[in-house]
Structure formats: C-alpha cells, structure tokens
Design a protein that fits this description.
The complex is a heterodimer of chains A (567) and B (185). With 567 residues, chain A is of the alpha/beta class. Chain A folds into 3 domains: 170 residues, 3-Layer(aba) Sandwich (Rossmann fold); 156 residues, 3-Layer(aba) Sandwich (Rossmann fold); 172 residues, Thiamin diphosphate (ThDP)-binding fold, Pyr/PP domains (Rossmann fold, 3-Layer(aba) Sandwich), CATH 3.40.50.970. Chain A is 37% helix and 17% strand. Chain A contains 24 helices and 20 strands. In chain A, the strands form 4 sheets. Chain A has a 6-stranded parallel sheet with strand order 3-2-4-5-7-6, sandwiched between helices. In chain A, helix 18 links the parallel strand 15 and strand 16. In chain A, helix 9 crosses helix 14 and helix 11 runs parallel beside helix 14. Chain A is globular and about 70 Å long. With 185 residues, chain B is of the alpha+beta class. Chain B has 2 domains: 81 residues, Alpha-Beta Plaits; 74 residues, ACT-like. Chain A, domain 2 (Alpha-Beta Plaits, 2-Layer Sandwich). Chain B is 36% helix and 38% strand. Chain B contains 7 helices and 9 strands. In chain B, strands 5, 6, 7, 8 and 9 form a 5-stranded antiparallel sheet that branches. A 4-stranded antiparallel sheet of chain B has the order 2-3-1-4, covered by helices on one side. In chain B, a hairpin with a 5-residue loop joins strand 2 and strand 3. The radius of gyration of chain B is 20 Å and the shape is elongated. The chains are: A alpha/beta (567), B alpha+beta (185). At the A-B interface, loops of A face helix 1, helix 2 and helix 6 of B.
Chain lengths: 567, 185
C-alpha cells in the first residue's frame, strides 16, 4: 500500500494511520469540518466499520462501551464546533473511568482559527483538563505522529481519553504517508518503577495479618491481571470486595468474593473495611462512594495500595505501603512472597453480616410476596436467564446500583457503567459499542425511564444496525435515585423528579424494535425468555414499584459501615 | 483555616503550545492563586522551565504536584520551601528624572539598595534591583513612604536554584530511557 514517493491527502493518511493502529470500528457523525476525512473513509469501508450514531454524545459513549467490552481503544469521529462539544460528556466520563478512547474532531482551517469563524471552538483548550492528552493537528505532516502518539497514550499506563483536533487544511493538504509507531514518550512514565522494598514490606504485612481485606478495582481488568489477582487472593486466603468497576474481575460466586463495596455495596464489606488489620487496595482510587466519611474510614488498618498512577497514592486515604506499577506484575511479585494461608475463620466472620443483609434487604427485594415488581427481581431474573454470562451495561441511578447488586458475573470485562461521572444517558450508546465489540456475547442494558430519554435517539442506530442489545427499562416514572434522596433527606419533597413518560412500547415500535411490557410478576420469566430468544434488539419495559429504594445505603457523609437497611 | 506555606514549584516540560494553560488549570481547579510565575528555556534544548510560587496548604501542594506531574508533556515537577532554595527576582522602577535629581531621599534609598541604573532620559530614569522578593517589596514600600512617585514598576517573578544536589533533568531522562530501552530498540 505504501509507496514512498506517493503523496496522499492528510485525510487519507489519517485513515491509514488508524488502520495501522488496528482500528476496525469508528463511531461517528459527519459535518463540515471533517468532510474530507469522511470522503477518505469512503474508500476504506472494507477495512473500517463506521457506525453512524444519532448524536455525537452517543458516539463518545459507544466508543467507551466498545473499549470497555473489548479491551481495545474506542474511536469516535466528529466534526468541529457543536459536533466536538457534544462529545465532552463522553470524554470526561472516559477520563474519570480510565477508558481508552480517541476522539478525532474536525477543526476549521488554521488560517481562520481565532476569527470566530463558523463552528469554531477551541476544542484543544476546552478538552485539556478532561482528557489525558489533547492536540491540534495543523499540518498533514503531523498526522501519523499524532495518531500513533494518541493511541499509545490512550491505552498505556492508566488508560484514558485522547483528543485530536484536525484542521481542515491538514485534512486536504498532501503528504507522504510514512507509518509511525510510538511506544515511548520521554515525559511520560507509563509504567512507573516498582520499589522492591515496598513489595517486601507489603508481603510481610500481609503475612503478619490476621484479618486482611482486599479491595478489587478496575485496574485489575485494565491490566489484564485477573489470573494474577485470583492466584494472589487464593494463596493468601484473602477475602475481597469489589468496586463498581471491579465487579467482574473474578466470578461473583468465588468463595472469597464478598460482593460490592461502598454506599450501596454489601454490608459485610463496609463493616469489615473498618475491622480489618491490613487493607490491600488493588487498582482502585478510594472514591467517596466507596469510602463514605474519610475521617472514619479504615483508621485501624495498615493500608497497602497497588496502583499504576502515582497521583492516586495518598490522594484520599493515607497509604502505609505504596506499591507502584502494573498490577499484573506487582500482584505476581506479592503472590510469590506471601505464605499460603488459611484464614477461613476470618472469611467465615463475613457470613453473619451477609445473612443479616440477605434477611433484611435481599430476600425482600428478590422474593416479594405481593405488590408491584421490584427492580432487583427483574435484574436477577435477567441475570439468571443469561446463565450469568452476559455483559451488563447500566445507566446511572437506581437501575445502576440495583444492577450492580443483583446482576452476577462469571466472565471478566462484563460490567460497563459510568462510575466516576455518573452520566445519565450512558447506557444505550455504551451497549451499542459493547454489542459491536463482542458479537459473541449477550449484552443486557439496564436503564431507567429518565436515562433512556437522555440518549433515546440512539435507538435509531440500534435499529439501523440491528444491534442485538437487550434493553431492560426499569420504569418507575421517577428519576428514582434523586427521588430516593428526596424521600430520605429532603422530607419527601419530590421536587421535579416525577416524569410524564411517552408510551415506550409505541416508541420501540416506531424504531422497529421488538418490545414487551411486563407488569405482573407471573409474566416476568416468560418476558425475559422472549427477550433473550428474540433475534436482534429488544426493549423489555418492566413497570416497577414507583417508590422502590436501593438498600442498604450509607447516607452521604456517614461512616461507610453505618448502613440503612430499611427506610 | 489550615496553615499555608509559600512554596516554589519548579516544572520542566516539553516545548509544546498549551502547557502553561494546562499547568495553570491545576491551580484553577484547586482555587489556589499563583503568586509569581516565570517561564523560560532551560539548559536543555526543547525543555522549558517554569518557576511558580504559591501559598497553599501541605495537602494542596501535594495534589498540585501530582496533577502537574500527570500532564502528558510535563517531564517533572517538584516543590520547595524557602529554606530549600536560593531565589532571586529582578524588578525595574521608572522614576521621573526631576524627582531623582531633586530628592536626596530617593537617590539615597536607591543607592542603599544597590540598584543600578539601566536608562537615563531627560524625563525619567529606570533603575533595576535584583534580589530577594522581600528586598523588592521593601524598596517599593519605602519609595512610596517617602512620597516618590514610581511611574512604572515591574518584577520578573522569582527564579530559583535548589540548595540540595538536585538530580538534573537530563539525568532523569537518561535513567528513564534506560528503563524503557527494550522499547526503544
């Protein structure tokens, strides 16, 4: 393909550079400032599958979903101005959740930059604080370098979003196409050196621990360290709790897996966090939804923190033993140095709290005897019917927390959710990305009636590509999570949280998407079966209790182990 | 209120456009004001050096440093308190020539501070003072106190060298290149 003297347009060079980086899927939306690139793309449709979304925000979340489900870098292609700014939510989301995406946005020609020309936005400046690297390409010669650098930055170290703005003159100017590869940037230490003294110290602390507790974060999935993590916890007999993003690092049924951490996590984990003698955090960042009030968080414990990002060490929680580096390597180093141990009496001590949570919360949520459907029982029915093998995509709010609590996993890289940003509208486009990345897996997308309507236009993309997303709409006619907070902390003053909704069945039918509404408990299993057996997309609308609450719950600002079981 | 300290941050970065903006954004995010800022080429080709001083808490300075270090094109950032650095600043004062000629106090003061004269015109003179930030503050205050009208006053922002044997940026880069040598081949 490459003739050394051949000159190609910058747009052609861009497409070739993307193919060189292994890109086979792009989520995008054309417009004035990116038309030359779309024209070049038209010659490469056999190599690149371009998915035309219905709004650029959808492209950014679809790229995120693609990246999270596949472990590859998601790509999003948009025009300048509003096309570019519409991706900001996805970029910020990817930054907080360490998701590798590259957003390529058109930009007006450099000679007009600074004149307030049509659709001019200083996108590089706007995106710098919310991405890992943002760069404006002003000449065709820079393209291959910038693309290679962008992909290296997005996927390496702690992954994240990268933004390239490409000026129109760079798209149309001619250049020689010289493939580039970037795997080292001198100002960027993507795999910080591990201090072996810290590894030894951490191993000694674990060996001496009577009551060690491990926090499993997304870093394990990002570092492909699931096997190393399993070997580590199994050798040490170490019970662990998972962050929201860490839920699928090991099967939910693993005997050492105690479930989720944090505000709506499993009670035992929050109690044991404040009881353990050594707390071992792996690839997680002590988010406030995990820690609750920092003043009372794990004060009794010696804290070991394994992370690839030096800026995370000691950011929220003081760390006694920091172990920097790629956890795939550091976990293996620790496993080698810890003694095999049976800590079954410590592990067994979690049981009383699990039982208490089961009796007071879980059993009521999953096995109600009367009344409208509960969110939890719908999620459990879907999870069970997929053999616990599906990819879970959630929106944000009650649907998210309920799904995180009741959906179970047997396979890695199976939870896609907006954890850091809490972006409503994430679910549907992210599920599209997951479907394209993993056509071999079932993708279940749980959303609410609020979140669905934030990116509802992507049903058009799902329709066009017959993407087999199994959408489960938990419809309670409320912005449920905000309503729950209003109930608990604002004296039931339901200020603007009730939603007057469209008929979602008619909506699905307008998009040619098979659908079913389920109200009665007796119909639930059959409806789930119908959804999973239908080829292509399906919208299952479950009409759930209007004022259902996610429990247990640590009220904001409270100690993490101080959980409400009823309200 | 937590106790604040005056810190001097020294940053080395690549010479790309937009880095100052990214560094400044870290301060904006934490609502910390920059007291002084100096940017210049460093002794290494294509490496820029920022000397930034700010008053903040120990907790914030740690966050600021880590966040600056995290920027893709920043090579390294470190911070120092006053006892860990030798620092200096340059200030220029523009004073009317008449005032300088006629006021003994003014000329005595300028001599006392070891200022040197950069320019003399029939209308004004420009004197320069290199020294500590405190000396510059004090000269300006004294000139004001004796009623000398300073027509223009400008200061460079301080620059600093560290008191300790600081690892050179070039050494840091060669060590890093050594660690990643497998990739570089």
């Amino acid at each position: 393909m490459n003739n050394e003297n051949e000159k190609v347009s910058g747009s052609e060079a861009l497409i070739r550079a993307l193919i060189q980086e292994g890109v086979d899927t792009i989520f995008g939306y054309p417009g004035g400032a990116i038309m030359p690139v779309y024209d070049a793309l038209y010659d490469h449709l056999d190599e690149i599958n371009h998915i035309l979304v219905r709004h650029e925000q959808g492209a950014s979340h679809a790229a995120e979903g693609f990246a999270r489900a596949s472990g590859r870098t998601g790509v999003c292609l948009v025009t300048g101005g509003p096309g570019a700014t519409n991706t900001l939510t996805g970029i910020a989301d990817a930054m907080l959740d360490s998701t590798p995406i590259v957003v390529i946005a058109g930009q007006i020609a450099t000679e007009y930059i600074g004149t307030d020309a049509f659709q001019e936005v200083d996108f590089t400046c706007v995106t710098q604080p919310i991405c890992k690297w943002s760069y404006q390409i002003s000449t065709p010669e820079e393209i291959t370098w910038a693309v290679a650098r962008a992909f290296f930055i997005a996927r390496s170290g702690r992954p994240g979003p990268v933004v390239l703005s490409i000026a129109k003159n760079a798209q149309v100017g001619m250049t020689e196409y010289v493939p580039r590869k970037v795997n080292y940037i001198r100002s960027y230490d993507d795999e910080p050196e591990t201090d072996m003294r810290m590894v030894e110290e951490a191993a000694a602390a674990i060996n001496a621990a009577k009551k060690p507790f491990v926090l499993a974060g997304q870093g394990i999935e990002l570092g492909n360290a699931q096997d190393e993590f399993r070997a580590f916890v199994e050798k040490g007999g170490l019970p662990f709790g998972c962050t929201l993003h860490g839920l699928s690092v090991l099967p939910s049924s693993h005997p050492l897996n105690m479930g989720m951490l944090g505000m709506h996590g499993n009670y035992c984990n929050n109690v044991k966090t404040n009881e353990c003698d050594v707390l071992i955090a792996v690839g997680m960042r002590f988010d406030d939804r995990v820690t609750g009030n920092l003043a009372t968080y794990a004060k009794q414990a010696k804290v070991i923190h394994l992370d690839i990002d030096p800026s995370e060490i000691g950011k929220n929680v003081p760390v006694d033993i920091p172990v920097l580096g790629n956890c795939r390597k550091t976990l293996a180093m620790l496993t080698e140095r810890i003694a095999p141990a049976d800590r079954s009496s410590w592990v067994d001590s979690f049981e009383a709290y699990r039982k208490e949570e089961f009796d007071r919360v879980i059993n009521k949520e999953l096995h109600p005897e009367s009344g409208p459907l509960n969110m939890g029982e719908v999620i459990d029915a879907v999870s069970e019917a997929t053999g616990r093998k599906a990819i879970l995509v959630t929106d944000v709010g009650q649907n998210q927390m309920m799904a995180a609590r009741y959906f179970k996993f047997t396979e890695r890289r199976s939870i896609l959710t907006s954890g850091g940003m809490g972006t409503m509208g994430y679910c549907i486009p992210a599920a599209m990305g997951a479907c394209i990345a993993r056509p071999d897996r079932t993708v279940c997308a749980f959303t609410g009636d609020g979140g669905l309507q934030m990116t509802v236009q992507e049903l058009g993309t799902i329709m066009e590509h017959r993407l087999p997303v199994k959408i489960v709409l938990l419809n309670n006619s409320y912005l449920g999570n905000v309503r729950q907070w209003q109930q608990l902390f604002f004296n039931r003053r339901y200020s603007f949280t009730h939603l007057e909704n469209p008929d979602f069945q008619t909506l699905a039918s307008a998009y040619g998407i098979a659908s079913r509404r389920v109200i009665e408990r007796a119909e639930l299993k059959d409806a789930v079966k119908e959804m999973l057996e239908t080829d292509g997309p399906f919208l299952l609308e479950a009409c759930v209790a209007e004022e259902g609450n996610v429990l247990p719950m640590t009220p904001p600002g409270q100690s993490i182990d101080n959980m409400l079981m009823e309200c | 209120m937590e106790e604040t300290t005056l810190y001097t941050i020294i940053v080395h970065s690549e010479n790309f456009s937009g880095i100052l903006n990214q560094i400044a954004a870290v301060f904006t995010r934490l609502q910390v004001n920059i007291e002084s800022l100096n940017v210049s080429a460093s002794s290494m080709k294509n490496v820029h050096k920022f000397t930034i001083s700010c008053k903040t808490t120990a907790k914030n300075i740690d966050k600021i440093l880590k966040q600056i270090n995290k920027k893709m094109d920043v090579i390294n950032a470190s911070c120092y308190t006053d006892d860990e650095i030798f620092q200096s600043e340059i200030a220029m004062f523009k004073i009317s020539t008449d005032e300088f000629k006629n006021s003994e106090d003014t000329s005595r003061l300028l001599r006392g501070y070891n200022t040197h004269i950069v320019e003399v015109t029939p209308d004004f003179i420009v004197v320069e003072l290199a020294g500590s930030s405190e000396a510059i503050n004090s000269l300006y205050e004294e000139l004001t106190r004796i009623g000398c009208a300073v027509k223009q006053f400008v200061r460079s922002g301080k620059v600093a060298v560290t008191a300790s044997t600081l690892e050179k940026v070039s050494d840091l880069l060669s060590k890093r290149a050594e660690r990643y040598k497998d990739r570089l081949q």
